[in-house]
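Protein 1 of 2
SEQ + STRUCT:
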Amino acid sequence: MDDLKYLGTIIKREREKENLTIDEVAQLICSPRQLIRIEHNDSLPNVWTFVKICDRLNIDYSHVIMESKLLFITLNDFSTP
């Protein structure tokens, strides 16, 4: 699951690209506080929440997962001596 720990980073980037606020994305999906925790990579969303957030942002779930895994690999490559 470590390779999914950057899901929030990707979600935040996509939300900002769409010029949406935390409240707009969280509406009827989760609390704004929960979305903030997800975006800060403090919490992983459950499957239902993840799918609903991706739908709201008009992004493909697999794209978000793949980008999160790539970011994990890239950041770990830089931290390995």
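Protein 2 of 2
SEQ + STRUCT:
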Amino acid sequence: MGAGLVAPPQAQAASNSYLGGTALDPEGLLQLVLGESAGSTAYQTLQSLNLLGDSNSTAVLPLSYAISMAGAGHSATAFSMLGLGLATTDLPLPTGVVGLPVRLAVAGILQAMGAPQSAVDSALDGNVQAAQVACLGGLTVAYSSTDGGCVNVLAVLNGDYNPNDKSISGAIVNPLAILSLLTDPGDVTSKLINGLLSGDSRAIQKLLTQDFVRLGFSAGGRTGAYGLPSLVSLTSDYGLKSPITAEWLGQKVTIFPAIASSATNVATPNTPNYFGFPLVDLNSLDTSQWLPEVHGLGFNNIRFPGENLLALGQLLGGLIGGSSGSSLPFSLTQTDPTTTLRVASTTLTPVEAPSVAPLAASTPSTNSFLDNTPKVDVGKSLGNTVKPPTSFQFTPQGTNPVAPQVGQAPAYTPPPAPAYKPPSFSPPQWTSPPSWGGGNQGAAVQTPPQGQGAAVQTPPQGALTGPNGGGSTGPSSTGSGAQNPGTSSGSHGFGFGGGGGGGFQPNFGQ
């Protein structure tokens, strides 16, 4: 009887698309990445080397994508109804001496790309950590035999099973996390590449969604404070970015510490665990630290989910306005554990204070306000270092300029008050009644106006000439005002008994 050789079973790959859905098996995935011709050649090569396993993809309805790819000895399944279901497994490499060149080449490529040493060592051992599991959409399911599975309902409800840390969890997620590519593309892309190279099977899932809150259970796959197993965890991609710490007298207490094993296991969330035990570090007594210090309570230690909404608003605004839209003025990221709000860089240039020129004392002016106003030289350009003036001149009208001391206000000398000149008053002209003369003697009587000094002048005896005697002449009397002699003359006077009386009219000065 001869011995028979049994060929290994052929890998099974199936893709089913219904009602406009898109399902990709390993061949279709390679064609999508490498092109139709190169993808078909690569698929046939991998199949001939028995490097492919069983995969199944099913997509229903438009905008539904199901992608699966499995390495030899593994299986992957993806289902999508409105959304994305992605499932891939680790990729085994040829073993033995024949496969050594392949393993060395793959390890060299990973090392050149910056992969951690654990991923390089895994490639040298014949296994490439290429598994990815991601779910997002109306109803999506994905399963990888090497890295567990996920399910997503209505884009916000997520369930996950990860054998790498023996955990199962449920979460309410933010389905707009991918919009972070608009606010901080460099940081998001860097995290994605690092996750793929380090073997994080949820790297693509973290690109698509972020956890508002996640409740997880682990059966011995996680380690918490004091080396105790972390059985229950409550974590979030928002809220506290780092645990709260309190220090006093050299001692330190950490509240909400992250799961300890997350430092070495990428499958475990490395955010604060709100169900974690406080971690106490006992150190030597420090009496100089007598005031307690608390860190992590500020807003700069809190991450808000607002950048996704801002990015969505920017995108919609650009589409409605017909423009591509400018970058957001700030982004809320998790790259810096001490800074939440990163403001766009803005340079503030100091402004040089304008110089003050003194007034010329020799130039007279008819406007006192303008004379008392400092003259400003605005010819200098702005944008240099601030240089306040060291002196200035303030010259009131009618005074000589005096340079004040630096840092002192100049003394103000008011202009002299003008002399007061009352308005002039000219009383009206007043005419006295006529003088009465008679007989051989003419008499003149003058009466001053009201308010003036009263005086009655009787002329001396005077000779009469002619048939009608001429009027007598006498000095005028004055009141309290300035004296201005007046003369009374009689011509054509009248009198009783043939005599002629002289007329008299006083003249009052001011």
